[in-house]
Amino acid sequence: MASTAAGTTGDVTEELPQHDSVDRAEIAAALPGADEQTPLARAVADDARKRITLSGRSVPRPARTRALTVANQKGGVGKTTTTVNIAAALAQAGSPVLVIDLDPQGNASTALGIAHHAEVPSVYDVLVEGRAISEVVQTCSDIDGLMCVPATIDLAGAEIELVSLVARETRLRNALTAYIDEREAAGEPLDYVLIDCPPSLGLLTVNAFVAANEVFIPIQCEYYALEGLSQLLRNIELIRSHLNPRLHVSTILLTMYDGRTRLSSQVADEVREHFPDQTLRASVPRSVRISEAPSHGQTVMTYDANSSGALSYLEAAVELAERGAEPPVIEETA
Ligand code: ADP
Ligand code: MG
Questions:
Q1: How confident is the model at residue 1 (pLDDT cuts 50, 70, 90)?
Q2: In terms of domains, do 130 and 44 share one?
Q3: Looking at the 3D structure of the chain, how many domains does it have?
Q4: DSSP assignment of 133-193, as one string?
Q5: Cα-to-centroid distance, 155 and ligand 2 (Å)
């Protein structure tokens, strides 16, 4: 993995390329404890620990393709940021990943450096024109094994155009299933599909919920974070009982965490209390590097791999992968 100029602590990992995970754990544990230090020193030590434990690690690959819809009907909570950075981290760790940009804003496409001006074949053509994903998919030049189905401005009209089409809720699922099978048959199976949703619960989001088995909810550590969540959960339940019995909330990630504020830790505690099994131990801090990366057409994973934001997303991605592939036993509903 390329190192960047950041590294205020010196890049410890570069001296340790051969160590196995046991050695890594020992070295990480040997770093000075956090309690006798200032918050800044603690943050630096935490980052160093993550760098040693996680850098250049490969992750277990799922037995079958896992499709996750990244959803939260609130805007600006970190859906797109989470989609592209988790996708990048998983791909860097050796798992082939497809990102489907389902937000007409096309922010995920931008962040992955993928062309998505009006003439580019996109997810619109898949949903409305019935084109195959293989005809519109692009590869991300920065990261091996990372692919993206871009969103163009056309998608803004799709919400309305879809209404009159047959099988309007299952169009993405049908296209995705065909693509997953195609990759499998070619001996190049996808490990993950991450679908970036718009901040609304229209037909685009319904298509995402029907196409995926897992819902991945990023929650911003701010006041009102849980507001609207019960609505989201009710909608997921509706989709589950009518359209996709396998759908379940598998993963919750706390984003924009600010360790200096009591509010952030209160929100985090509350989320963990409500969703103990789904919430990842890793959380993502508020970080300037994360917000700068998209303007360079990059994820933070390549823009500044040693930043605390990148390390947190890497930590979250490893956890997501290690939590295993299989959905819980399905009880047939309706
Ligand atoms: P959504 O897709 O839910 O609307 P975004 O991922 O686009 O949210 O994030 C909203 C804004 O917040 C973007 O400008 C993004 O760069 C910024 N942002 C997201 N996560 C972080 C973070 N951890 N630290 C700082 N800025 C962030
Ligand atoms: Mg977004």
A1: very low
A2: no
A3: 2
A4: HHHH-EE-TTSTTEEEE---TTHHHHHHHGGGSTTTTTHHHHHHHHHHHHHHHTT---SEE
A5: 14
The answer as to whether 292 is a domain residue is yes
With a Cβ cut-off of 6 Å, ligand 1 is lined by 75-81, 107, 199, 255-256, 284, 286-287, 290-291, 294, 309
Q: pLDDT, tens digit, for every residue of 249-305?
A: 999 999 999 988 888 999 999 999 999 999 999 999 999 999 999 999 999 999 999
Check: CB of residue 231 under 8 Å from CB of residue 73.
Answer: yes
Is 266 a domain residue?
Answer: yes
| 93 and 191 housed in the same domain | yes
- Distance of alpha carbon 268 from alpha carbon 82, whole angstroms: 17
Q: How long, in residues, is the chain?
A: 334
Give the CATH number, domain containing residue 275: 3.40.50.300
Domain holding 38, by residue range, is: 8-55
Atom of ligand 1 nearest to the CA of 284: 23
Q: How far is the CA of 78 from the centre of ligand 1 (A)?
A: 4
- Average per-residue pLDDT for the chain: 88
* Residue 135 and residue 28 share a domain: no
